[in-house]
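User: Hi! I have a protein structure encoded as tokens and I'd like to know what sequence might fold into it. I'm fairly new to this, so please keep things simple.
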């Protein structure tokens, strides 16, 4: 059933309940997940962080790679998550926080399988937010604040021209080969060549640590190769290389 996010309404949704479990089946086809700066350190220890560009909106985003192919989440075995950290943008489901007029509003996917008669009530009989919903709203507020800081971080990285396209060359067990393109990462040489005042500014903004977290996370591509051993066609070999901007393919790689 298609996702259908609608504004959470205490009248319309007064009887709604949401199941609380550790199932992540809704993310089984999610190969990219938006990442926010406040979780970079945790994510970087488990999964790769890369930049992608939305050419239509002319905006860059930081995402974490959950798989090498569209529709593939290597961190899921059945409904269970394999790893110590789950991205906040997956944990938030079936809720989301989105612009609602001139402010941010809480949304819910009315078609979610997590909506259940046995779940946690969202509202009390008096029509107030339940303790469960109150906690979710605080989580969503933290997520929204982290996303706004992430946008400033990405804008600064793009402004300083620190990004270079990267390409992943994969060879599978059956001999099939493919290139994963459309991603960018931090160019360490460009970072080291920045004037001292710009490095100091990055440090004071809390962005320097985030930059190094992204750079370190690229090593977690090996984790994806390892996780592919549980698939029907494991990855046998992987090669990561930089791509000159003029040689980078026009089409975007793994889209979210």
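Assistant: Happy to help. Inverse folding works backwards from shape to sequence: for each of the 256 positions I chose a residue that suits the local structure. Here it is:
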């Amino acid at each position: 059933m298609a996702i259908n996010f609608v504004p959470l309404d205490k009248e319309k949704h007064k009887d709604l309940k949401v199941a609380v479990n550790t199932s992540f089946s809704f993310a089984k086809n999610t190969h990219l997940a938006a990442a926010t700066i406040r979780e970079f350190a945790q994510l970087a220890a488990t999964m790769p962080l890369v930049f992608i560009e939305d050419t239509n909106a002319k905006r860059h985003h930081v995402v974490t790679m959950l798989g090498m192919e569209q529709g593939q989440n290597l961190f899921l075995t059945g409904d269970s998550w394999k790893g110590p950290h789950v991205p906040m943008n997956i944990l938030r489901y079936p809720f989301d926080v989105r612009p609602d007029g001139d402010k941010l509003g809480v949304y819910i996917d009315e078609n979610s399988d997590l909506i259940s008669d046995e779940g946690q009530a969202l509202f009390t009989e008096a029509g107030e937010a339940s303790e469960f919903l109150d906690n979710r709203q605080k989580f969503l507020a933290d997520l929204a604040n982290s996303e706004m800081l992430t946008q400033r971080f990405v804008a600064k990285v793009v402004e300083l021209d620190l990004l270079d396209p990267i390409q992943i060359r994969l060879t599978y067990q059956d001999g099939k080969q493919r290139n994963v393109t459309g991603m960018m990462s931090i160019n360490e040489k460009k970072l080291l060549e920045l004037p001292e005042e710009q490095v100091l500014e990055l440090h004071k903004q809390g962005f320097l640590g985030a930059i190094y977290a992204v750079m370190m996370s690229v090593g977690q591509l090996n984790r994806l190769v390892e996780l592919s051993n549980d698939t029907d066609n494991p990855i046998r070999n992987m090669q990561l290389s930089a791509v000159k901007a003029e040689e980078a393919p026009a089409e975007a790689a793994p889209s979210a």
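A useful reference point when you look it over: The radius of gyration is 20 Å. Feel free to ask if any position seems puzzling.
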